[in-house]
Amino acid sequence: GYALFAFVLGVTVGVLAPRILPAMAITLVVFVGARYAVTTWVRPHLMTPLQQTQTITYSPGFGLAQGADAGSGLFLIPPDPNLPNAWVYANVAVDQAGQPPSSQFLQSACPWATGGGGDGGSGSTGTSQGSGNVTTGPSASGGPTADQLHACLSAIDARFHDVVTYQPADRYWTFQGVETAVYAGLSLVLAWLCLWWVRQRIA
User: Fold this and answer.
1) 56-59 long-range contacts, Cβ below 8 Å, gap at least 24?
2) Which of 44, 74, 127, 141 has the greatest count of CB atoms below 10 A from its CB?
3) What is the pLDDT of residues 36-86, one digit of tens each?
4) What is the sign, positive or negative, of the torsion defined by CA atoms of 166, 168, 169, 174?
Protein backbone atom coordinates (compact mmCIF):
# COMPACT_ATOMS: atom_id res chain seq x y z
CA GLY A 1 0.00 0.00 0.00
CA TYR A 2 2.81 2.42 0.85
CA ALA A 3 4.69 1.60 -2.34
CA LEU A 4 1.60 1.96 -4.53
CA PHE A 5 0.71 5.29 -2.94
CA ALA A 6 4.29 6.61 -3.27
CA PHE A 7 4.46 5.60 -6.94
CA VAL A 8 1.11 7.12 -7.93
CA LEU A 9 1.86 10.22 -5.86
CA GLY A 10 5.19 10.67 -7.65
CA VAL A 11 3.54 10.28 -11.07
CA THR A 12 0.79 12.75 -10.19
CA VAL A 13 3.18 15.36 -8.81
CA GLY A 14 5.40 14.85 -11.86
CA VAL A 15 2.45 15.61 -14.12
CA LEU A 16 1.39 18.68 -12.14
CA ALA A 17 4.93 19.98 -11.55
CA PRO A 18 7.08 18.86 -14.51
CA ARG A 19 10.37 20.14 -13.02
CA ILE A 20 12.18 17.12 -11.61
CA LEU A 21 13.77 18.38 -8.38
CA PRO A 22 10.70 20.31 -7.11
CA ALA A 23 8.51 17.31 -7.99
CA MET A 24 10.79 14.98 -6.01
CA ALA A 25 10.79 17.31 -3.00
CA ILE A 26 7.00 17.73 -3.08
CA THR A 27 6.50 13.97 -3.38
CA LEU A 28 8.73 13.29 -0.39
CA VAL A 29 7.06 15.93 1.79
CA VAL A 30 3.52 14.81 0.91
CA PHE A 31 4.35 11.12 1.35
CA VAL A 32 5.94 11.65 4.79
CA GLY A 33 3.07 13.95 5.79
CA ALA A 34 0.47 11.40 4.72
CA ARG A 35 2.25 8.60 6.59
CA TYR A 36 2.44 10.73 9.73
CA ALA A 37 -1.20 11.79 9.51
CA VAL A 38 -2.48 8.24 9.02
CA THR A 39 -0.27 6.84 11.78
CA THR A 40 -1.09 9.57 14.30
CA TRP A 41 -4.70 10.56 13.60
CA VAL A 42 -6.32 7.87 11.43
CA ARG A 43 -4.93 4.51 12.58
CA PRO A 44 -6.04 4.81 16.25
CA HIS A 45 -9.64 5.34 15.07
CA LEU A 46 -9.89 2.64 12.42
CA MET A 47 -11.62 0.33 14.90
CA THR A 48 -13.31 1.02 18.22
CA PRO A 49 -10.96 -0.03 21.01
CA LEU A 50 -11.97 -2.46 23.72
CA GLN A 51 -11.96 -1.80 27.46
CA GLN A 52 -11.00 -4.13 30.26
CA THR A 53 -11.57 -3.54 33.95
CA GLN A 54 -9.26 -5.14 36.48
CA THR A 55 -8.58 -4.89 40.19
CA ILE A 56 -5.58 -2.97 41.42
CA THR A 57 -3.02 -5.42 42.80
CA TYR A 58 0.67 -5.38 43.59
CA SER A 59 1.92 -6.68 40.28
CA PRO A 60 4.52 -5.54 37.71
CA GLY A 61 4.10 -1.88 36.81
CA PHE A 62 2.26 -0.85 39.98
CA GLY A 63 3.70 2.08 41.86
CA LEU A 64 3.24 5.43 43.52
CA ALA A 65 5.10 8.42 42.24
CA GLN A 66 5.60 12.01 43.21
CA GLY A 67 5.84 14.77 40.61
CA ALA A 68 9.24 16.25 39.97
CA ASP A 69 7.98 19.80 40.54
CA ALA A 70 8.12 21.21 44.03
CA GLY A 71 4.82 20.74 45.81
CA SER A 72 3.57 18.10 43.39
CA GLY A 73 1.45 15.42 45.00
CA LEU A 74 1.37 11.66 44.71
CA PHE A 75 -0.16 9.86 41.77
CA LEU A 76 -0.89 6.21 41.16
CA ILE A 77 0.80 4.11 38.47
CA PRO A 78 -1.57 1.21 37.66
CA PRO A 79 -0.19 -2.30 37.20
CA ASP A 80 0.62 -3.47 33.70
CA PRO A 81 -2.33 -5.19 31.99
CA ASN A 82 -2.03 -8.87 31.13
CA LEU A 83 -2.61 -8.31 27.40
CA PRO A 84 0.31 -9.78 25.42
CA ASN A 85 1.13 -7.82 22.25
CA ALA A 86 -1.93 -5.60 22.62
CA TRP A 87 -1.88 -1.96 21.54
CA VAL A 88 -2.69 -0.21 24.83
CA TYR A 89 -4.18 3.27 24.43
CA ALA A 90 -4.65 4.05 28.11
CA ASN A 91 -4.25 2.40 31.50
CA VAL A 92 -5.80 4.44 34.30
CA ALA A 93 -7.15 3.90 37.81
CA VAL A 94 -10.55 5.53 38.36
CA ASP A 95 -13.51 5.33 40.73
CA GLN A 96 -17.14 4.69 39.80
CA ALA A 97 -17.45 8.33 38.68
CA GLY A 98 -14.41 8.03 36.41
CA GLN A 99 -12.15 10.15 38.65
CA PRO A 100 -8.55 9.15 39.48
CA PRO A 101 -7.38 8.94 43.10
CA SER A 102 -6.41 12.32 44.50
CA SER A 103 -3.04 13.00 46.05
CA GLN A 104 -4.76 13.58 49.40
CA PHE A 105 -6.42 10.15 49.25
CA LEU A 106 -3.14 8.42 48.38
CA GLN A 107 -1.33 10.20 51.21
CA SER A 108 -4.05 9.08 53.61
CA ALA A 109 -4.14 5.47 52.35
CA CYS A 110 -0.35 5.14 52.04
CA PRO A 111 1.22 7.59 54.53
CA TRP A 112 4.62 5.93 54.20
CA ALA A 113 4.74 6.91 50.50
CA THR A 114 5.48 10.55 51.30
CA GLY A 115 8.68 9.64 53.07
CA GLY A 116 10.66 9.87 49.80
CA GLY A 117 14.23 8.75 49.43
CA GLY A 118 13.71 5.77 47.14
CA ASP A 119 15.74 5.61 43.95
CA GLY A 120 13.17 3.58 41.98
CA GLY A 121 15.59 0.71 41.54
CA SER A 122 15.51 -2.88 42.68
CA GLY A 123 15.02 -3.15 46.44
CA SER A 124 13.80 0.44 46.71
CA THR A 125 10.72 1.46 48.64
CA GLY A 126 8.87 4.70 49.14
CA THR A 127 8.64 7.19 46.28
CA SER A 128 11.24 9.03 44.26
CA GLN A 129 10.78 12.27 42.40
CA GLY A 130 9.20 11.51 39.05
CA SER A 131 9.30 7.70 39.23
CA GLY A 132 8.83 6.14 42.64
CA ASN A 133 7.86 2.55 41.85
CA VAL A 134 6.96 0.83 45.11
CA THR A 135 8.35 -2.54 46.20
CA THR A 136 8.36 -4.41 49.49
CA GLY A 137 12.09 -4.99 49.74
CA PRO A 138 14.23 -3.55 52.59
CA SER A 139 15.30 0.05 52.18
CA ALA A 140 17.59 2.32 54.14
CA SER A 141 15.06 5.11 53.66
CA GLY A 142 12.38 3.20 55.59
CA GLY A 143 9.95 1.82 53.04
CA PRO A 144 6.66 0.04 53.75
CA THR A 145 6.32 -3.33 55.38
CA ALA A 146 4.25 -6.01 53.70
CA ASP A 147 1.33 -5.20 56.04
CA GLN A 148 1.54 -1.48 55.24
CA LEU A 149 1.61 -2.18 51.51
CA HIS A 150 -1.35 -4.57 51.84
CA ALA A 151 -3.36 -1.95 53.76
CA CYS A 152 -2.51 0.65 51.11
CA LEU A 153 -3.58 -1.60 48.24
CA SER A 154 -6.76 -2.63 50.05
CA ALA A 155 -7.77 1.00 50.58
CA ILE A 156 -7.10 1.84 46.94
CA ASP A 157 -8.81 -1.26 45.53
CA ALA A 158 -11.90 -0.67 47.70
CA ARG A 159 -12.64 2.59 45.86
CA PHE A 160 -10.80 2.39 42.55
CA HIS A 161 -10.36 -0.02 39.66
CA ASP A 162 -8.07 -0.14 36.67
CA VAL A 163 -9.53 0.57 33.21
CA VAL A 164 -7.43 -0.46 30.20
CA THR A 165 -8.34 0.80 26.72
CA TYR A 166 -6.69 -1.29 24.02
CA GLN A 167 -6.71 -3.00 20.66
CA PRO A 168 -6.24 -6.78 21.01
CA ALA A 169 -3.37 -8.48 19.25
CA ASP A 170 -5.71 -10.54 17.03
CA ARG A 171 -6.76 -7.35 15.23
CA TYR A 172 -3.27 -6.83 13.81
CA TRP A 173 -3.98 -8.17 10.33
CA THR A 174 -7.34 -6.41 10.23
CA PHE A 175 -5.54 -3.13 10.85
CA GLN A 176 -3.04 -4.03 8.13
CA GLY A 177 -5.83 -4.73 5.64
CA VAL A 178 -7.81 -1.59 6.45
CA GLU A 179 -4.77 0.67 6.24
CA THR A 180 -3.72 -0.94 2.96
CA ALA A 181 -7.21 -0.21 1.63
CA VAL A 182 -6.86 3.41 2.75
CA TYR A 183 -3.63 3.87 0.78
CA ALA A 184 -5.07 2.01 -2.20
CA GLY A 185 -8.06 4.36 -2.14
CA LEU A 186 -5.80 7.41 -1.99
CA SER A 187 -3.83 5.97 -4.91
CA LEU A 188 -7.02 5.60 -6.99
CA VAL A 189 -7.97 9.20 -6.28
CA LEU A 190 -4.53 10.42 -7.33
CA ALA A 191 -4.60 8.25 -10.44
CA TRP A 192 -7.98 9.73 -11.41
CA LEU A 193 -6.63 13.26 -10.78
CA CYS A 194 -3.57 12.51 -12.91
CA LEU A 195 -5.67 11.12 -15.77
CA TRP A 196 -8.12 14.04 -15.60
CA TRP A 197 -5.26 16.56 -15.69
CA VAL A 198 -3.61 14.91 -18.68
CA ARG A 199 -6.89 14.85 -20.59
CA GLN A 200 -7.47 18.52 -19.79
CA ARG A 201 -4.02 19.42 -21.07
CA ILE A 202 -4.53 17.43 -24.27
CA ALA A 203 -7.94 18.98 -24.82
Assistant:
1) 56/93, 56/153, 56/156, 56/157, 56/160, 56/161, 56/162, 57/153, 57/157, 58/134, 58/136, 58/149, 58/153
2) 127
3) 999 999 999 999 999 999 999 888 888 888 866 655 688 899 999 999 999
4) negative
